[in-house]
Each structure stands twice: as structure tokens, then as C-alpha cells.
Design a protein that fits this description.
The radius of gyration is 23 Å and the shape is globular. It has 14 helices and 12 strands. Among the domains are: 114 residues, Inositol-pentakisphosphate 2-kinase, N-lobe (Phosphorylase Kinase, domain 1, 2-Layer Sandwich); 234 residues, no CATH class. Strand 11 and strand 12 form a beta hairpin. Strands 1, 2, 3, 4, 5 and 6 form a 6-stranded antiparallel sheet that branches. With 498 residues, the protein is an alpha+beta fold. Pfam families: Ins_P5_2-kin. Phosphorylates Ins(1,3,4,5,6)P5 at position 2 to form Ins(1,2,3,4,5,6)P6 (InsP6 or phytate).
Length: 498
């Protein structure tokens, strides 16, 4: 980019999360800018200086490249770089994209004062090696937490039986005055199933993410979002439109013409290719990764998945897959928030007495080799020291980042068939796909957010226990019509051993 020639008309609104807004380049489709947001009431009085904004974004880059990359594998990570943009360009860009933003996101405004942004590759429009005239598909999945806690500090037994995702969905539905969309949502999809790797479970989890995407599942075609359902939005899912988009990618599977393929066949083909990509190998060596697959409960009681239908139990995830690396990093949360909070209080009290120690313990970064060393050298047992408490808090923050990340799976149809399965290539049904798997949304979680996370955990669990897991009357409409009732009973035809 030539920063002195930036033109807001070269950029378009791409999307946004809770803390940042993303724009993509109109002509250079593989490029996006991510800009910070802050509450609308601070629009005339920015909450931080330009130097602080630059440091915040640089911390995101450092945390991603030095910490999460080591744990998750370099192959999956795109950390980007901090850029300083002309202020007039940022102001005009903010005006241009404002009308494209969803109303429910407009409680926050784009940072127009610092000029700082994070420049990243556009993972929804990949530049893969297979030349094709067919637009690439990109699927964004938020895997959420993939295990149930087994910590001795857990005070409510329900947390060891029902996953946080299911209880949180229940909490959203039953809480009054919440976003309208939550009166229509079901909490029946459990993300724990996605991490358990039995192919039937993964197929089940992805199918239900399609049926209930909320903000956890999106599909892009040629960089444009064609399927999603966001929190706070009243937009209904257009399943027929999704099938219309997907059908050409699977038109010659098993010598069938696309007009003869049922919606079920299209979705099954699509899900199988996606599962194959998620189970593909990749990633480099990472530190602080241990195998804890055998610990704790392996299923969530609130899931609709019929456990009796699993003939051979749950297979463990292959250790070189993206889901395995994410799950193992999530499991750095060994104490649960209930066991972690007293250690947070120990650190907080120490910092109140010795405020200059905040820098020494790297509470706000920098996220470098010394930070990783603190994670790795944490003793198994609590010796009562501040150093132990700091290390466990850092481990918890890293785990929370892994619980809140997104997986981007890019699929590019290939015109050629390969006999072997080398490299980044999927060929479960012609046409085959070249693919890439990436992880994004790897921001460090603030140290000071831990008390808020404890309060939220308490509210979620209390709500679930108070209602006995029952949802308000009328809050469970029929599932969208991707599969008929008969088709729901049959999701095993495409499964093969891995």
C-alpha cells in the first residue's frame, strides 16, 4: 500500500466484531485492514492516545506471532503488521462504511483518531495454487470450548455434565429483554461434538452449525458472505439460496448431474469435504502441548446427539490437526474460572502493593519469549508464590483466546484429479478441492476481565440450574428444512475410517 495515496473509495466494509471493524480492498482482494472500535459515547473523547492504540495493535501481532503461533502451529497463523494510516483517510472511510454496518453493532464507533490499523491477508478470498474460474469457498467456524471441566475447584456438578456453550445459549434464550434473535434460537448444538473427532459426531456438529449458525458459522463465496446468522439480527436464513450456491461445486459427484442431487446430497458432500479439511495435517511444533484427551467427560448431556448410535466410541483427534491444537491450548485452563479467580486476586493484591511489578510480570505484555517462558515454567502445584499465580493467569488468558478463536477453511475447486493425497488436496468426491486452514481472532484477553468472566459464569450456571435446563415456552421452533425428519436419522453413509 502507498500510504500517502490512500483513497477510501478503494475499500469496502467487510465485517466487524466486538472490538474491531474490518474493511477489504476493492481491487487487491487478498488484503484487509482491521481498525479498532470504542463505545459511541467516547466518539468525541477517544479512550486512548495514538501511542496506546499502536501498542494495543502491536500487542495483538506479538501475541499471535510469538505465543499462539508456538502453541497452534505457524502454518495456521497470519499475524499481520501494524500500519499508520492518514487520519483524513480514516475519517472518510468511517463515514463511507457507516451505512453498511448492522444497526446492532453501531453502539461502537471506529477509531478515527489514532490512524493505527492491522493489515492482514483476506482469508475469505485466498490465493491458492489451483487455477480455476469457480470462486473459492471459505467457511468460518468458531469452535468454542471443546471440553468439559474436570477441575476440583468446580463447585456445581452440572458444569462437568453440560458444556458451557449449551448453558450459555440457554442463558441467552431465558434472559429477558435480550436480542430478538435469541427468542428464536436453540441451544441444541454443542461445540464439544466438533472436537471429539468421531466422524459421525463431527458431521452432526457441522450440520447443526449450518442449521443454527448464529455468529459461529459463516460461508463466503469469492470473498462475499453468502450464509450467516448474526446475534441481534432479524435476518432469516435462506437455506435454498445456500443450496443454490453449493450445488455447482458438487455437480459431478458419483457421475451425478447437479439437477438430480437432493439438498441432502449437496449438504452431505459439502460437510464431508469440510470435515476432511479440518482433519488434515498441518502446523509446526509448538511448546506447552500435552495430551489430555482421556481426562474428563467426553460428551455434553444437553446435546441432541444420540450416544447409543455411536458404535465404536469417540476417536481421538489426530495430533497434527487444527482442532487438536486448539483443543490442547484451550486445556491450559486446568483450574476453571472458579479455581483461577483466587490466583487472580493474589496477583491483583500484589500489584496494588507493588504497582511497578505489573511490568515485570508482563501483565500487559510484551508478548515475547520471556512471556512464553513464564507459561512453560509454571509448576504443577501451587507453592503460594505470586509467580505461580501469574503463570496460571497467563495460561488461562491464552486458553480463553483459544476458546474464542475462529477457524477459516478455504476451499478452491480443482480441475485436475490426483491419485495420491499429498499436500493440501481433498478428493473425497470429484471435483477435488485444494484447501488451506487458518486461525484468526487471536487477541490477548485482558488481565482485568477475569472478575467479569467469573460473574458471567455464575449467572449462566445459576440460570441453568434454576430452570432445570428447560427453555421458555415457544422458544424452540422447528429446525430449518435442510434435512427432512427421515434424513436426520441417516448421516453415516459418507463416513470412512481415518
Amino acid at each position: 500500500m502507498e500510504l500517502d495515496k490512500m483513497d477510501e473509495n478503494d475499500w469496502k466494509y467487510h465485517g466487524e466484531g466486538n472490538k474491531s471493524l474490518v474493511v477489504s480492498h476493492v481491487q487487491v482482494s487478498q488484503l484487509v485492514l482491521r481498525l479498532l472500535k470504542y463505545p459511541a459515547e467516547d466518539s468525541e473523547n477517544p479512550p486512548q492516545t495514538a501511542e496506546q492504540a499502536f501498542r494495543q495493535i502491536q500487542n495483538i501481532v506479538d501475541f499471535s506471532s510469538n505465543v499462539m503461533s508456538s502453541l497452534l502451529g505457524e502454518k495456521f497463523i497470519h499475524s499481520g503488521e501494524v500500519v499508520k494510516l492518514p487520519l483524513e483517510f480514516v475519517r472518510q472511510l468511517s463515514i463511507k462504511v457507516q451505512h453498511q454496518r448492522p444497526a446492532w453493532r453501531c453502539d461502537k464507533v471506529m477509531d478515527i483518531y489514532s490512524g493505527c490499523a492491522l493489515c492482514l491477508p483476506n482469508l475469505t478470498c485466498p490465493a491458492l495454487h489451483q487455477p480455476t474460474h469457480t470462486p473459492p469457498l471459505c467457511i468460518e467456524i468458531k469452535p468454542k470450548c471443546g471440553f468439559l471441566p474436570s477441575s476440583k475447584h468446580v463447585s456445581k456438578d452440572i458444569k462437568t455434565k453440560v458444556c458451557r456453550f449449551c448453558m450459555h445459549q440457554h442463558y441467552k434464550v431465558t434472559t429477558t429483554n435480550h436480542c430478538k434473535v435469541h427468542t428464536k434460537q436453540k441451544y441444541r448444538t454443542t461445540t464439544v461434538q466438533l472436537h471429539l473427532s468421531g466422524l459421525q459426531r463431527m458431521h452432526f456438529a457441522i450440520r447443526h452449525l449450518i442449521e443454527e449458525p448464529q455468529n459461529n458459522f459463516k460461508i463466503f463465496k469469492g470473498g462475499q458472505c453468502i450464509y450467516s446468522s448474526k446475534e441481534g439480527s432479524d435476518d432469516s436464513l435462506d437455506l435454498n439460496s445456500l443450496l443454490h450456491h453449493l450445488r455447482p461445486y458438487f455437480m459431478y459427484g458419483n457421475n451425478r448431474i447437479n439437477s438430480h442431487m437432493t439438498g441432502k446430497a449437496v449438504l452431505n458432500d459439502f460437510i464431508q469435504v469440510l470435515v476432511n479439511a479440518l482433519l488434515s495435517g498441518g502446523g509446526g511444533d509448538g511448546g506447552l502441548v500435552t495430551d489430555r484427551r482421556g481426562e474428563g467427560r467426553s460428551f455434553c448431556e444437553a446435546s441432541l446427539f444420540n450416544k447409543e448410535r455411536i458404535r465404536h466410541g469417540s476417536q481421538g483427534l489426530p495430533s497434527d490437526t487444527v482442532l487438536f491444537r486448539i483443543l490442547q491450548t484451550q486445556m491450559l485452563d486446568t483450574l476453571d474460572i472458579e479455581g483461577l479467580h483466587p490466583l487472580y486476586r493474589r496477583v491483583e493484591q500484589h500489584l496494588q502493593d507493588f504497582p511497578k511489578e505489573r511490568t515485570h510480570h508482563q501483565i500487559d505484555g510484551p508478548y515475547n519469549e520471556a512471556f512464553m517462558e513464564k507459561l512453560q515454567k509454571c509448576p504443577t502445584d501451587d507453592d503460594g508464590s505470586v509467580e505461580y499465580a501469574v503463570a496460571k493467569v497467563h495460561q488461562y488468558r491464552v486458553a480463553m483466546t483459544a476458546k474464542d478463536c475462529s477457524i477459516m477453511v478455504a476451499l478452491v475447486p480443482s480441475n485436475e484429479e490426483k491419485e495420491d493425497d499429498e499436500g493440501d488436496f481433498l478428493s473425497s468426491r470429484p471435483p477435488a478441492f485444494s484447501y488451506s486452514v487458518s486461525i484468526l481472532d487471536l487477541d490477548p484477553k485482558p488481565f482485568d476481565s477475569i472478575p467479569r468472566q467469573l460473574r458471567l459464569d455464575q449467572r449462566i450456571v445459576s440460570c441453568y440450574l434454576r430452570t432445570g435446563g428447560a427453555l421458555p415456552k415457544g422458544s424452540l421452533p422447528p429446525l430449518p428444512g435442510i434435512f427432512t425428519a427421515a434424513e436426520r436419522e441417516d448421516c453415516t453413509l459418507l463416513f470412512h475410517p481415518v
